[in-house]
Amino acid sequence: MRIQPLSHIPDADDLRATHEAIAPLIHRTPVLSSRSIDGIAGASLFFKCENFQKIGAFKMRGASSAALRLTEAERSNGLATHSSGNHAQAVALSAKLLGVPAYIVMPETSPAIKIAATEGYGAHITFCANNQKAREETLEKVVAETGATFIHPYNDYNVIAGQATAAKELLEQAEGLDAVIAPVGGGGLMSGTALSTRYFAPGVKVYGAEPREVDDAYRSFTSGRMQQNASINTIADGLRTNLGEKTFGIIRQEVDAIFTVSEASIVDAMQLIWERMKIIVEPSSAVPLAAILDNPAVFAGQRLGVILTGGNVDLGKLPF
Amino acid sequence: MRIQPLSHIPDADDLRATHEAIAPLIHRTPVLSSRSIDGIAGASLFFKCENFQKIGAFKMRGASSAALRLTEAERSNGLATHSSGNHAQAVALSAKLLGVPAYIVMPETSPAIKIAATEGYGAHITFCANNQKAREETLEKVVAETGATFIHPYNDYNVIAGQATAAKELLEQAEGLDAVIAPVGGGGLMSGTALSTRYFAPGVKVYGAEPREVDDAYRSFTSGRMQQNASINTIADGLRTNLGEKTFGIIRQEVDAIFTVSEASIVDAMQLIWERMKIIVEPSSAVPLAAILDNPAVFAGQRLGVILTGGNVDLGKLPF
Description:
Two copies of one chain form a homodimer. Chain A is of the alpha/beta class and 320 residues long. Chain A folds into two domains: 12-58 and 156-308, Rossmann fold (3-Layer(aba) Sandwich), CATH 3.40.50; 60-150, 3-Layer(aba) Sandwich (Rossmann fold). Helix content of chain A is 47%, strand content 15%. The first copy, chain A, has 14 helices and ten strands. Chain A has a six-stranded mixed beta sheet with strand order 1-2-10-7-8-9, with helices on both faces. Chain A has a four-stranded parallel beta sheet with strand order 5-4-3-6, with helices on both faces. In chain A, helix 12 (263-277) crosses helix 13 (283-294). Chain A starts with 11 loop residues before the first helix and ends in a 12-residue tail after the last strand.
C-alpha cells in the first residue's frame, strides 16, 4: 500500500488516509484511567498509552506514515535517519515490516541497549561523533552511498500526519474531553495532536507541556518567533530538541497554550504514574501530568486527554 | 449483598457465586501479550494483569470474598488482619467499600509507604514487634477488643474462592490454553487457580512456580507432607509464607507440577516484563515467567496463561 506524500499541512482527509494506511503497522493503544491520580488532580484524566506502542513509543506512527509515502523504487533503496532514540527504532522497524533496508546513524556514545534494540530490527548502524554536525554529515554520506531516503524525526508533514493519529484515536476512545495535552520536543507529536483535535473535536482545547529547562517552544509560541534552547539539561530526553519550522507553524496557529514545568515536577509526576498506574513511562511522558498537577486553577474539574509518549527507560538509571 | 460462608472446598457453583458477588468490588483486569517475550519463550503467553487490580494485587479478590460472607452483625464490627503487605491493603479497602472499620496489625518495621497506603484506606493500624508471635498476639487482642473478624490471608476457603476468580477470568479471556501457571506462597492463589482450572477448563494443566530459596510447596508437594521454609531469603516478598493445611490439601490434589527457580531467574524475568511489556510487576509476579524460560522443554510451543500477581514495589529499591 502507498499513500500520497504531503507537501502541505495535512487536512482531515489526509489524517484519515494516514490512519487507515498505517493501521497494520501500529497498535491501537489503550486509554487508561486512575481513580487515585484523578483524586490528586481533581480532574478526570484519560491517558493514551503510547508506551504500549510498537518500539515502545508513538514514533512508530510517524515513521511508518513517512515510509508508506515513498514510491516502490525509493522504498527499495531503504530508509535512513540519525537518532539515538525512539525514532531510530521506529525507522528500523518500519523498514523491517516493509521488507526494505534501514540505515541508522547513531552517536558512538549511544547506550548499548538502544544500539542492540536497533540492531535487533535488522538495521545497518553507522556510528559517528556525538554532535549534530557529525550526525548530519555521516547521514549525508550514508544516503549518498545507498540511495536510502532520510526520514526526519519531526519536521516533515508526512511524519506529523502519522503522529496525529495518536490524538485521533484518543478522541475516538475517550468522549467528551475538555482538552488534550501533549508534550513538546521537536513538535511532531504536538502539531499532529493539534491538527487531529481541531479537525475531529473542534471545541476541545489543545495544550502543550514542556520542561522549563528546554522551553524553546514556550518562548517561540509566546514571542511568535522561533527560539533555541540554550541547554539540554532535562531528564525528559525526548524533549531536548528545538521545534522545526513546519511544526512551529502548526503549533503557533493551533495550540491554545504551552505550560512549562520544573524537573522536580516531572520526576514526581513520573513516579505517580509508575506507582498508581503500574505502567512504565519515560520522563517525557510525565510532562503533561506535571503541568496538570502544577496548574489546578486551569485544569480542575475537567476531562483531559493526556498523551503518554513512550516507555523506553534505562532501568539502571531511574530518578527515584 | 451477602454470600454463604464456605466450610468446604469451593465447588464450581461456589466460584461462580463468589465471582458475581465480588464483581462490584474488583476490577476485571486485562490479559496482555508480548510478541517479544513470546519470541524469547518460544511459546504464546497470556498474562493476567492483577498488578492493575485494586490495591495493586490479586489479594483484593480474596479479602472481598471473605468480607461478603460475614453477617451484617459480624461485618459491622469490622475486619481485622495482620500483614505488612498487599493483604493488609486488601482488607482495608474491602472494609472501606463496605462501610465498616478495618483493624490492621503491622510490624513496626513496615515500610512507610505501605503504612501510608493502609492508612489511606481509613484503616486503624496497631503496630507490633516484627515476629509472628507478636503479630498473632496483637491481633488476638485487637479482635477481643473490637469484635472484628479476622480475615486470614490464605488458609481460608472463603479467601481461596476469591483468589480463584483471577484464573476464572483468565480462562474466559484467553481461549485454548494448554496450561495455567501461578506463583505459590501461602497457596491461596495457587489453590484457587487449580480449582478454577479444573472446573472451568478440565483439560488444561495447572502448574505452580516457586522461588528455590523458599521451596516449601515444592517439597510438600513432592513428599506429600507439609514442609516448612528454612529461610525467607528471596526477593519475591509475596512468596515467603508457608502453605496452610487447606491450601496444601487442594494443591496436592489438583496441581500437576511445581517448578522452582533461582533468584537470578526471577530478577531476569521481572526485568523482561518491565522492559518489553512496559508494566510494573512485583518480583513474585515474575516467578512463573522465570519457570517458563528455565524449562523450554516443558513449555515450548504451548499457549500458557500466566498470573501476574501484583505491582506493588518500592521504586527506591529495585534489583536492576
